[in-house]
């Protein structure tokens, strides 16, 4: 076994690897970019070395720096985690040349499967069915267009070197093809350094089922159950579970054997995942092989009782597989939810910000010995979720004896998970875990789109109650300083003057609250209606009665920002001083950035007339492209930035004038 390893990654996966390495007595070396200088994985590792500036191309993708650090610190091996250089054959080669062990498959295996088109050709030759499409080397745009017409629509454009939904577009009509191809190529080039594309017939009702395989250098290969990863948004997984529900023993066996056969055919070593599309008639098609540890590996660990990172380390150190296929036992059911900084109500756009408030769910041991709850995370309260890397905050994984129990506990744990300071998908995940279609196994890759009305239900708390609860929290916690609007009034219940005014901004509107205190509570006038409220605060938990209705919620505050948490929902409210005067929200035709990012392409010029829905510029954030489109017909009056500019969320990007405002000659 190794004495010392370098972890060429960051965030939760770096913390995950450190946890196993520490248990095995292996010294760990972390690396970091400038924006990660206070990251959690640095505190957990034995050593930490700086890589460079924040952009991945200048830090986590710098092979030369990683190799220099490995030599300087005396590491024997490098664990790449997932993403970044984990599937880079050149890096695996470079490690071998430097006498370092790459904790992953040999470079030849990565090369065989690293190109999705080559992998499909290889699998087809091995007798594994593949999705119909075009996997050729001719990347001329006209050739791809002809192949698209031959394959038929809907069609999926995929980056040959890609993964994680990047460089991927669904095309429903030939008229969409050219723009979708150009956009997917730009995204693939930025993410993987390779803009080659393959085409596949899009199968919207298929399930995404993948098989975890492990091989050693002695020619042994086994599979460790399968996972269902059908619930996806933007072609990226959101919810994963093991074992995959409602598969016959014959299908499980066929998939597992096909996966091991494929891995052994390329002399594979270490952890790998074969991904398949599974149709209702029982047929399945090979999609791709991921030559690394998957984000969703914890669900496999919980149903097998195995530590896959330990297996990776042992196999890389030259040991045989710890178990045979017959010794692998599956118990219970595990479900993983990926907690992201993103905005589900706006097409899951990535979000950025500071985790000003963080309350994590309790462990399974505190609930029941028959429940296991695991949280894989790399962030703490006060940490920043930036624009340079994937916006994953944590993975919440639940194991129980049955799928029904696991989903129920997942929903409960998500309701306990509270984050303030950055938008998240927590409420969406809770709605997903609670949804009847999910619990009745109606799984396919279009699940979220099909059930969007159910998953994006309106808030469960009336605006007046949101405002009343926030007002009570403010009044119970307001520091009595000279700058406070309530300065000089100690002890709300007895000593404060009987009337107060408060202004709270909620859902882009400012609301004035008139309040009259009584010995045991308040009368509040909100929007012309009176409400009777009593409240008691214990820590961040508020117990209140509004108009005779008891309510329990949690609240947190950072400066003037308030977050109210109720049954898993988060309500964002901003506090204003009583003399606040509401300002107009009219922006005069300015279009703003929905998130922080970089302007990668400007597609219009000042003075140009544009149509409603036309793409005006491309904003790149978290390795994804986000088009900014014209909301209406008009003329571009001003452009406020150049290509390559970094912009913050809410920054005004350009100004449109209505057509009728154009001057006539």
UniProtKB/TrEMBL annotation:
Q: Which reaction does it catalyse?
A: N(6)-biotinyl-L-lysyl-[protein] + hydrogencarbonate + ATP = N(6)-carboxybiotinyl-L-lysyl-[protein] + ADP + phosphate + H(+)
An example of a Pfam family matching this protein is: BT_MCC_alpha
The protein's required cofactor(s) are namely: biotin
Is Nucleotide-binding one of the keywords UniProt gives this record? yes
Q: Where are the transmembrane segments?
A: none
Segments forming domain ATP-grasp: 120-317
Sorted alphabetically, which SMART domains does this protein's record hold? Biotin_carb_C
Q: Which GO terms describe its molecular function?
A: ATP binding; biotin carboxylase activity; metal ion binding
Alphabetical UniProt keywords: ATP-binding, Biotin, Ligase, Nucleotide-binding, Transit peptide
Which pathway does it take part in?
Answer: Lipid metabolism; malonyl-CoA biosynthesis; malonyl-CoA from acetyl-CoA: step 1/1
* InterPro entries reported in the protein's UniProt record: ATP-grasp, ATP_grasp_subdomain_1, BC-like_N, Biotin_BS, Biotin_carboxylase_complex, Biotin_carboxylation_dom, Biotin_COase_C, Biotin_lipoyl
Q: Where is the Biotin carboxylation domain?
A: 1-453
Q: Which Gene3D superfamilies match?
A: 2.40.50.100, 3.30.700.40, 3.40.50.20, ATP-grasp fold, A domain (3.30.1490.20), ATP-grasp fold, B domain (3.30.470.20)
Using the record's annotation, list all stretches that form the Lipoyl-binding domain: 579-657
- Please describe the quaternary structure of this protein: Acetyl-CoA carboxylase is a heterohexamer of biotin carboxyl carrier protein, biotin carboxylase and the two subunits of carboxyl transferase in a 2:2 complex.
Function summary: This protein is a component of the acetyl coenzyme A carboxylase complex; first, biotin carboxylase catalyzes the carboxylation of the carrier protein and then the transcarboxylase transfers the carboxyl group to form malonyl-CoA.
Protein name per its UniProtKB record: Biotin carboxylase
Q: Which organism is it from?
A: Oceanisphaera arctica
| Lineage per the UniProt record | Bacteria, Pseudomonadati, Pseudomonadota, Gammaproteobacteria, Aeromonadales
